[in-house]
Specification:
With about 625 residues, this protein is mainly beta. The chain is built from six helices and 55 strands. The strands form six sheets. It has a 28-stranded parallel β-sheet that branches. A 14-stranded parallel β-sheet has the order 16-19-22-25-28-31-34-37-40-43-45-47-50-53, covered by helices on one side. The chain has a five-stranded mixed β-sheet with strand order 9-10-11-13-12. The longest helix has 16 residues.
């Protein structure tokens, strides 16, 4: 039986540990080629990897039996045994099956080396350094040197009247050794469309068709040197649909129109830096990654004087690693715009960095993982809306934008929905959020969000609350779990500036919160505030130095609270009351304080106030 909790990587839940052990056992000992892990991803098993290697050998014409030793049984002439770096097969005159004696190869002529067969494979290969390059003439030239004509650059090739059928190699694109070398077959005019790389028009009317024997590189499309390279980059990206592409040299290139990474494209752009030198039109991304794209190292810098509301859009089933989006000027993008937008389901973004964008990252699709984002100079760090099964792991946010203020939505992480239940199962793991204008983490909006899991958040210097959950009338947020938060130096002067503030929510659990001060006069206004909350547990709170109460349960015009449990903890040095129950004119029921919480050095230990409201079944021990 599998529990399949869906908890993120690093979970210590015993159910996840059980599932992980089961998966590991299957991967090592199972007979199937692969198994699904606890997060739903298919993993290759040991048996599957062994089969893949066997298939590779079979496709090469040989089956590897293993290293030479006594007792190896050979049953077919295409089976090979490895001995001291050489491979041996049974000789044609050896009767099969044959069992090795261990006396040493070739065992009296029972085996013959297959080095000649390996050489034949190399001679038939089209890979660089093999094939015709291995056969030399008396003159010292290789057959490749004689058959393939060489020119310095693409311009030289275009100017030379090569005939159909000729094979030409360039030593560079614009200059020798610039990384753009390629081999071309000369074909008839109109065979393909000239894109500067896969097909190039020659001056005599013929075309050069790129063969790319050593792989596909951006330099082979002219994406090098100075000046805008938008068309060259787009041609390179387009050709890489269904292929792998990269850069041969470190390149710093500019672009002045939008770029498109097509579906099914695999790119390593770690050697490429892009300078964006134009202002992107409203609601338009500068770089669009299609579905099933795999991109590593996309580095985009918006030059001074230009603006962009959206820089990078990421499609479905894509993996984008280490994207870096920065701006020379602070970008005041707003609304649903962001420097990086995850708009396709099942996308994964690893180690993104965003600097100088008011809105850094938005997620508006299901099953998206954002791993270790590094965000600086922000108004809103990560915005999650109308999304299901999203995880944000170890986000880091620091230094508020000059445009950040104590204003709704100016949050490190904002979560909401535009219809009831449209946002569900959101996991925020070990966030480090500093300097947010309003709340560090906020779950807001007019519609229910269901299943918010905040694990070990560290929040410091928030202008409002460290964490705030605010539902709406008839649209309570549900299933909120806040585990081991550390909240330092929140806002000071109003109830909306608490360490943790939960309003209009049901089924909440807050475990081991630490709310303290470091540089400010107080840690927060209230340590933990609960208003119109149903079924909420606060376990072992450690609260100190608040400007008002340690724990405050109130109506606040939002309605009474029910089924509240405060279990243990320490509350000290609060200006107001350690534990405050302000019933006012609301109806409260089943409020329990147990575990003998330690309350010391506060203005008062307990305070209960009521006007026309009521409390049914209050328990205090």
């Amino acid at each position: 039986m599998k529990y399949n909790t869906g908890n993120p990587l690093g979970s210590a839940d015993p159910r996840d540990l059980y599932d992980t052990a089961t998966v590991a056992d299957n991967l090592v000992h199972g007979e199937e080629p692969g198994y699904t892990d606890r997060l739903g991803k298919k993993r290759k098993s040991w048996a599957g990897m062994e089969q893949d290697f066997a298939d590779f050998l079979a496709n090469s014409g040989y089956e590897l039996l293993g290293d030479y030793a006594a007792g190896v049984e050979v049953t077919a002439y295409n089976q090979v045994i490895r001995d001291s770096g050489e491979f041996w097969r049974a000789a044609a005159g050896t009767e099969l099956p044959y069992t090795t004696t261990g006396a040493g190869m070739p065992e009296g002529g029972a085996f013959v080396a297959v080095g000649d067969a390996a050489l034949r494979q190399e001679l038939a290969s089209t890979s660089p350094g093999q094939g015709a390059s291995l056969v030399f003439m008396e003159s010292g030239e290789s057959v490749e040197d004689v058959v393939i004509q060489k020119v310095a650059t693409v311009a030289n090739m275009m100017a030379t009247p090569f005939a159909v059928g000729d094979v030409v190699r360039t030593l560079g694109y614009s200059s020798v050794g610039d990384g753009g070398c390629n081999t071309y077959e000369i074909v008839a005019a109109g065979t393909g469309v000239d894109d500067g790389g896969s097909f190039i028009d020659l001056n005599n009317g013929n075309q050069a068709k790129g063969l790319f024997p050593g792989g596909v590189y951006g330099e082979q499309f002219g994406a090098l040197g100075s000046g805008p390279k938008s068309s060259e980059l787009n041609a390179f990206f387009a050709f890489c649909s269904g292929k792998f592409g990269q850069f041969a040299r470190t390149q710093i290139l500019s672009f002045t129109t939008s770029l498109t990474v097509p579906n099914d494209c695999s790119l390593d752009l770690s050697l490429l830096s892009l300078n964006m030198e134009y202002s992107a039109p409203a609601s338009t991304a500068a770089v669009v990654c299609g579905d099933r794209a795999i991109v590593n190292g996309l580095n985009i810098s918006l030059a001074t004087g230009f603006t962009a509301d959206r820089v990078l859009d990421i499609g479905a089933d894509s993996l984008i690693e280490s994207p870096d989006v920065s701006s020379a000027d602070q970008q005041g993008n707003s609304g649903t715009d962001a420097a990086i937008r995850c708009v396709g389901a099942n996308a994964r973004v690893k180690a993104p960095r965003v600097e100088n964008f008011d809105r850094a990252i938005i997620v508006s699709a299901d099953k998206v993982d954002v791993i270790r984002p590094d965000i600086s100079s922000y108004v809103r760090g990560v915005y999650i809306t109308d999304s299901v099964d999203v995880s944000v792991v170890e986000p880091k946010m620091n230094t508020a934008s000059v445009n950040a203020s104590y204003t709704a939505g100016h949050n490190g992480i904002l979560i909401d929905a535009t219809s009831s239940g449209a946002t569900r199962n959101i996991s925020i793991v070990r966030p480090n959020i500093q300097d947010s204008g309003e709340h560090g983490i906020r779950v807001g909006g007019q519609f229910t969000c269901d299943g918010m899991y905040f694990t070990s958040p560290f929040i410091k210097n928030a202008g409002g609350s460290g964490i705030k959950v605010l539902g709406a009338a008839g649209e309570l947020h549900k299933n909120i779990q806040i585990t081991a938060p550390i909240i330092i130096d929140c806002g000071q002067d109003a109830g909306n500036k608490s360490g943790i503030l939960i309003q209009r929510a049901e089924r909440c659990q807050i475990t081991s919160p630490i709310i303290a001060k470091e540089l400010k006069t107080y840690s927060a206004y209230d340590g933990v505030g609960l208003t119109n909350v149903v079924n909420c547990t606060v376990v072992n709170p450690q609260i100190s130095d608040t400007a008002n109460d340690g724990i405050s349960i109130s109506g606040g015009g939002l309605g009474g609270s029910q089924y509240i449990l405060i279990d243990g903890g320490t509350i000290k040095s609060c200006v107001g009351t350690g534990f405050s129950l302000a019933i006012g004119d609301q109806a409260f029921s089943r409020i329990m304080v147990k575990g003998k919480p330690l309350i010391e050095a506060c203005g008062s230990a307990f305070d209960f106030s009521v006007s026309t409201g009521s409390l049914t079944r209050g328990y205090f021990s």
